[in-house]
Request: fold
Amino acid sequence: MQETFLSELHNRGYFNQCTNEIDLNKLMSKSKIKAYIGFDCTAPSLHVGSLMQIMCLRLMQRYGHQPIVLLGGGTTLIGDPSGKEETRKILDKKVINKNIKSIVSVFKTFLSSKNPKTKPIFVNNYTWLSKLNYINFLREIGKHFTINKMLNFDSVKIRLEREQSLSYMEFNYMMLQAYDFFELFKRYKCILQIGGSDQWGNIINGVDLIKRKYKKEAFGLTTPLITLSSGIKMGKTEKGAVWLNKNMLPAYDYWQFWRNTDDKDIFNFLKFFTELDTKKIDSFKNENQNINKLKILLANKATEMLHGKKIAKDCEITAQKTFVDRSIGKDLPVVKFKKKILEEGLSIFDLVIKTGLAKSNGEVRRMMGVSRREVGHGNLALRAIKPSLPNNDVFPYTIRIVSEITESNGSSSMATVCGASLSLMDAGVPIKTPIAGIAMGLIMEDKNRYAILSDILGTEDHLGDMDFKVAGSDEGITAIQMDLKIDGLPIDILKEALDQAKEGRLHILGEMKKCLSEPRKKLSEHAPKLLMTNIPPDKIGLVIGPGGKNIKALQADYECDLNIEDDGKCVVSGQDQGKLEKVIEILGGYSFVPEVGKIYEGKVVKIMDFGAFVKLAPDSDGLVHISEIQDKRTNKVEDVLKMDQSVKVKLLKVDDKGRLSLSIKAAIESK
Reply:
């Protein structure tokens, strides 16, 4: 079967949903159409988060269709609220026009203008939006939009649910985007709008508007929102956005972005961001191709489209020389110093700061990490404390102890052991027993003339013959470490040192217990609260939602972190116990198994002429037929029920397709 534009969209993973896929496919198979994608002009460049849409425009050209690039000179003055938690910064027209000019140069790199029939059409919606008469717009366009419907779009609903401000200006955005489609249909006979999945509601508005005004069919199609396997939104790295404007990101950095693709993303990205045949990409997976070679292939092909073949090859050679040959590639950044500065000498701190790798001495120190001595002391303290820590099933927290030694004339590692033990108990961590430590020293002339020292000072450590650290509880030793400056230690002196260390350790433990004898009963108010539950593994995708939408909303609404493991184990952490318990309750809904005859509390999520749909659990709702709302005749559902209203319902039956029949009337009668 011959491949079509839509079939390749499916094969490459560009397809999310479409208003009328069958009719659109027939139309595009027998004739050439115009389709558009709109782009914000909030920055002087798009980043790789917009690259899937650009690849769709390239694909249209390959199949003989003509793409329209709509630049939001008008709508950028307002700002699209979709996927945003706060109002966008308002830009002036001068900045927006400058951005448009820069963004057009990106499209001219990716899209071909050689064929007049597929040459991209660039349009600025400021052309018509700036001429709108507000009264006429409300009369002719606004009358086709209902507030009820607009309030149910995610871009509005999420902001309102989170009690985040949504300006009237932003609320109008969806009408303006629908009007864009209407204008492009009228001016260019454009019949298809493509956008990200978060634009579905706005796209549907445009399709409906054209149908109402012209009694003709237009189509809407969305692509999936892309997140990396790590969960980070596509388009940004720790260093910032990966821009598509050549002047805003060096070619080598762009190549490296693709070369550093996660192993889990490589096959998807080869389909998304190259024009390699999809069957060939599938064969790579079947043949177990070297994953690093595939990353280089991705980097080369993606960089070729933006910078050309030669530059892409140069980037590969630079990476080869730098990371494999351990030499210097020509595309690496260069920092020049005056000869005099180098002759006078340059510290490693100054060198790192002057090359731009760090901004301060403190940042350089953090980059260099802790010293060998600090690592050793930390490991000793960890060995000492670890046997007393609670098991993971009792206390499923990650514990991090930081010991800041500001001044010392004794053993900082043993001070860390004692301090860590006290801080854990003070925080309410249920350790099994307190741990203390002491540093023992030795001054020895011969085996008959020696002195064993307890809790040695710095000078005694420096001038003495032994540094012997002993840590443990009142029941026994948990860790020891010995440094000797003599050839050996007689066993009787070792025993004496251990006995003396025990006496000192027990004394320290006694002093510690005067301060705090056992862990506090309650976890510290400053510690995050943590609750656990389990959901069926096949429900994990529903909890996460498309592009992480559901899990992000849960975390934002209830101010928590939610981690879900592959087996369905969920760990919820945060500061507010009540909110965490609510999240656990919501997650419990994903394990919901409806029982006929049982009464449930649910929320009205949809009102129809014949009844209302009530949500009982996150992925389970049922129909209350109009005859089951009350014990008398109901003329209109809206007269009795409202959206988001909480109601008690009784489950009457579950049909063979799993659909639930509910009754408010029966729930009241059961009382």
About this structure: The chain is about 40% helix and 15% strand. The radius of gyration is 34 Å.
